[in-house]
Amino acid sequence: MFRGLRKIISTFVFVGFLSALFSVVFILSERYFLKDLMEENAAAYRLTRSGLQGALLRYEPVAPLVADRDDVIAFLKSGKSRSLGKILNQQLSSLATEIEASDIYVMDKSGQTVATSNFDLPRSFLDKNFRYRPYFTEAIAGRAATYFALGISSGKRGFYYSSPVHHDGKVIGVVVVKITVDAIEASWKNNNHDVFVADQHGIIFMASRDEWRFKSIDPLSHFALTQIEIS
After folding, report:
1. pLDDT by residue (tens digit) across 84-108?
2. Nearest alpha carbon to residue 158 among 121, 120, 184, 126
3. How far apart are CA 44 and CA 24, in angstroms?
4. What is the pTM assigned to this prediction?
5. 25-38, pLDDT tens digit by residue?
6. Is the sign of the CA dihedral 101, 106, 107, 112 positive or negative?
7. Percentages of the chain per state (helix, strand, coil), in multiples of 5
């Protein structure tokens, strides 16, 4: 599986880590001479890694900031008042547009989406339950999380940033911010090197080559397959 890459990887590979979530593997083109690898490609790797890291870190503080907003806390405390919900939906929609996020949504303790920036779209998350998603299970336990997944409703790949909503020392809900990766990935297309991003299971979810996407670097174990199916 993925034999075409294995030959390239065995020639020369740079591996870097962006937080604990995922690794970026920079595949060096075989057309470069070995003497040029360390200088030319190391610089290209650093540039690609820095660009990706910057794009992702930009959104990291957003979920905690939204989770700390008075209107979010008031809405969850109110028992999901319709009037407060309408206002919150509009506020989330405006914020998503302003920061160029795909979606921003609020879930209650059961994992049900009770307010969302896409409330007026056919793919609205309203009333949908995402309690099975790792970003929810982590946040409802009081821990901020970052997670990559293929959207169930949208069918689009994205990074999900989640944060617990606290009130009086208790977690009363979860805020999630999603960004899509298409624009970042598209910027790699015209480079003279190939790059992919793989998750902890070795599944490639971003790549400069379309045919690499969703392939695995190594054969998946039964445990990995089970974890992917659950999430």
Report:
1. 999 999 999 999 999 999 999 999 9
2. 184
3. 13
4. 0.75
5. 444 444 444 445 55
6. negative
7. 40, 25, 35
